Amino acid sequence: MCGIWKSPKTTELSLEEWKSVIIKLKEWLGPFRVQLAGGEIFIRDDIFDLITFAAENNVLAGVVSNGTMLEGEKAERLIDTGLGYFDVSLDGINPETHDYIRGTKGVHEKALSVIRRVNELRKRKGSNLVMYAPVIVCGYNMNELIALVHFVENEGLDAVMFNPLGPACDADTRWWEKSDLWPKKADLDKLNRIIDRLISMKMEGARIINSVDQLHAMKAYFVDPSLRSADNCMVGMTNFLLSADGNIHLCFKMPPIGNHADTFAEVWALKRAQEVRMRIKGCTYECSPGNLPYRRNLAQEIRRYLSFK
């Protein structure tokens, strides 16, 4: 879905090395939130051990998954790790819609199975696990967005999270002109009415995690996908990124500023880290236009973290 599978292969850190990273971050930050991301994170068989280790050390871990690799006993094993939040992507109510957007037949059935299994287990076991359903908003599934809100509520999930279609990591600068998922101009009025309905549902208490401002911004974005946010990019201020090979980044589009063997506090304060932050502040690269119209500022990031406490 993201195109990361086309990237050159790297030698990933071992489980013990990732555990060391967790401890070093904890010693530096105190309690913190870590997002374990891919690609598909459950390709790693030892990811359950890493999540368990994080929870045992009072670190809030979250994952985003396509739901294709958590069949059978793995779902129960996931609950027992102490995972904080679990997002399973769902891009359509109809199997044909989700499978087409994902490019693989049968993945809708697998995603639904995992959602229902993990949801049933967390309720039965009294788990505090938070479950979201992230949805890519595009022209191909716009007629199913409202039904997806009802699905989340009927299934008893915590929220649905709408993300407008954006470029894959290997996309060119005019990627939307070549995408068969991008809304056609003739459909924009209808899409706007659907988003307006989502806004009304949000204001009536529907389980939509997006803010009203975010949903409004989405309408403008689909008219002009080169739209940029009025807020400065907070990458490099609200996050600390470690790639699979252990390199430390403030932005994955820019060179690393250190690696997992370094002292993190020192890396964060390095002169080259400050130089990268200045480059980020003036950056005009359209790395993820779909999210730029409603990027979170520092205060919003703090509130988001505290909501999981």
What is the tally of beta strands? 8
Query: What Rg is obtained from the alpha carbons, in whole angstroms?
Result: 20 Å
Instruction: Tell me the series of helices and strands, N- to C-terminal.
Output: HEHEHEHHEHEHHEEEHHH
Strand order of the largest sheet: 1-2-3-4-5
Largest β sheet strand count, sense and barrel closure: 5 strands, parallel
Which word captures the global form? Answer: globular
Report the mean per-residue pLDDT as an integer: 89
The structural class is alpha/beta
Level of helix content?
Answer: 40-55%
Q: Count of helical segments?
A: 11
Low-confidence stretches: 289-294
Task: Give the percentage of residues in beta strands.
Answer: 5-15%
Distance between the termini: 31 Å
Task: Give a description of the structure.
- With 309 residues, the chain is of the alpha/beta class.
- The protein is 40% helix and 11% strand.
- The chain has helices at residues 15-29, 47-56, 73-80, 95-102, 107-125, 145-155, 188-203, 212-223, 264-269, 271-281, 298-306; strands spanning 33-36, 60-65, 85-88, 130-137, 159-164, 241-242, 247-249, 258-259.
- A five-stranded parallel β-sheet has the order 1-2-3-4-5. Strands 6-7-8 form a three-stranded antiparallel β-sheet, with no helix packed on it.
- The chain is globular and about 55 Å long.
- The model is unreliable at 289-294 (pLDDT under 50).
